[in-house]
């Protein structure tokens, strides 16, 4: 479980094909200590287990389902990623409940400046917008955000300068693909009401 509050921007150092999956080596600048083997880390919002680690660096394996549903398979050495360790019992929950289970990817349709803020609009499969509401929560590339508007095939958000500087959002341009996790509470309500995607 995560909060969607990104701790650091890491960098993909290496990628290696492993059968139908990939192994990613990622640097974590300023990491305090060494990650434990088996520890969960959200990488662009995707929960993966640490399989090797050293000072400021760790490795994860991404299987076929992860590569299908996320943008991690397209990442190359030098690309930046958002990083967050799993929340501990007793930690502050400043974002919202994020499982690290990416539902789908969305594409940046528009980015524009509005004063000190930045407006982003995304296109996504309409099957996922039924789980979104204006002013509701969403995780985009692992960042807990508040939805501004929701359309049939898209949604929008507004970002403050800190979020732009501390996450990969500052690097995003129209056409970029991002990972999306809808609110877990909305998924459970949908299932309880008998509405299938």
TrEMBL record:
Gene3D superfamilies the UniProt entry points to: 2.40.30.20
GO MF term list: riboflavin synthase activity
Stored InterPro entries: ATP_synth_asu-like_sf, Lumazine-bd, Lumazine-bd_dom, Riboflavin_synthase-like_b-brl
Boundaries of every Lumazine-binding domain copy: 1-96, 97-193
Start-end of each Lumazine-binding repeat: 1-96, 97-193
Entry EC number(s): 2.5.1.9
One record GO biological process: riboflavin biosynthetic process
Pathway: Cofactor biosynthesis; riboflavin biosynthesis; riboflavin from 2-hydroxy-3-oxobutyl phosphate and 5-amino-6-(D-ribitylamino)uracil: step 2/2
Keywords, alphabetical: Repeat, Riboflavin biosynthesis, Transferase
Role this protein plays: Catalyzes the dismutation of two molecules of 6,7-dimethyl-8-ribityllumazine, resulting in the formation of riboflavin and 5-amino-6-(D-ribitylamino)uracil.
Name under which the protein is recorded: Riboflavin synthase
Organism: Paludisphaera borealis
Designated gene of the protein: ribE
